[in-house]
Design brief:
It is a single chain. With about 280 residues, this protein is of the alpha+beta class. It has a domain at about 115-265: Thrombin, subunit H, CATH 2.40.10. The chain has two helices and twelve strands; from the N terminus they run H-H-E-E-E-E-E-E-E-E-E-E-E-E. The protein has helices at about 5-30, 35-110; strands spanning about 115-125, 130-135, 145-150, 155-160, 165-170, 175-180, 190-195, 200-205, 215-220, 230-240, 245-250, 260-265. The radius of gyration is 44 Å and the shape is elongated.
């Protein structure tokens, strides 16, 4: 028994043989007959299809390699662009970090106290407390109660210490309190944390002259912060018809959402700290 494939092959061979014999007989009987015409008519369409197929495959192959080459080149360009962008970001970050450190260094020169530079490594995730964690602790002679500052002014006070880390209570926390003065008139009050990143200057007598924009500084009377450190500027004043105190709102100079490096004062100066205005 022959398979289906064998039968097809045999049939094709027989058909070709018969065609050749028929063409030979016709050519012998009719000399004017040109079998080449029939051959051309029969073969030309198939050749055309074959040639077109070859050309299509060749063009497709060339385009494929071209696209592969373009895709690889595109990927290389993207990688080069990513590397260049990362270098630019790194340079920008280094420039910003250098600017902050230069500011702290210049500020440090104006302080008559030994300081430790620290990096802020974490913020308190709770909205109830305004604290940060710095990367120095008891091993660096840090302890509870030490003041923390930046060139813009007061940051807060260390409230907890481990061997390598410390927690700082920010002045914008409601539990914080700093004895303060209105720099222009020397009116005294107590800076306490308020809402929306602002502070309140409490216990300021109604009789004292205070204007919007007045600078508030530390008085040095609380035994923690040296006198003259900037705290903020007066942003709102409410004088009730009754009562002996004014309701004063202070906007801190320090941007607590962007704290990255701070200074911890290890020993308070024996004389006042003078802030340049």
């Amino acid at each position: 028994m022959f398979s289906k494939r064998s039968v097809i092959i045999i049939g094709v061979i027989v058909l070709l043989t018969v065609n050749v014999i028929v063409l030979s007989v016709i050519a012998s009987r009719y000399p004017s007959f040109r079998p080449s015409r029939i051959a051309i008519s029969l073969v030309a369409p198939f050749q055309q299809v074959v040639v077109r197929s070859i050309r299509f495959s060749r063009d497709l192959w060339r385009h494929y390699f071209y696209l592969v080459s373009v895709s690889k080149e595109n990927e290389n360009l993207k990688n080069a662009l990513r590397i260049a962008e990362k270098k630019n970001r790194d340079k920008a970050e280094i420039a910003l970090s250098n600017a902050r450190l230069r500011s702290l260094l210049n500020f440090q020169k104006s302080i008559n106290s030994e300081v430790i530079a620290c990096e802020v490594i974490a913020n308190d995730p709770s909205s109830l407390f305004k604290t940060v964690i710095i990367d120095k602790g008891e091993s660096n002679r840090l302890k509870r109660g030490l003041p923390v500052v930046v060139s813009e002014g007061v940051v807060g006070q260390i409230i907890d210490v481990s061997h390598h880390y410390s927690k700082v209570l920010l002045v914008i926390d409601s539990n914080s309190a700093v004895d303060a003065l209105i720099q222009r008139t020397r009116a005294r009050g107590l800076i306490k944390g308020g809402i929306s990143g602002r502070c309140r200057l409490e216990y300021v007598l109604r009789k004292h002259d205070i204007d919007i924009g007045d600078t508030v500084i530390s008085s040095g009377l609380d035994g923690v912060f040296p006198k003259g450190l900037c705290l903020g500027s007066v942003s709102n004043i409410i004088k009730e018809k009754s009562g002996i105190f004014q309701d004063v709102t202070v906007s801190p100079f320090v941007d607590f959402e962007k704290l990255e490096e701070v200074l911890v004062l290890l020993n308070l100066p024996s004389h006042d700290f003078v802030t340049e205005q």
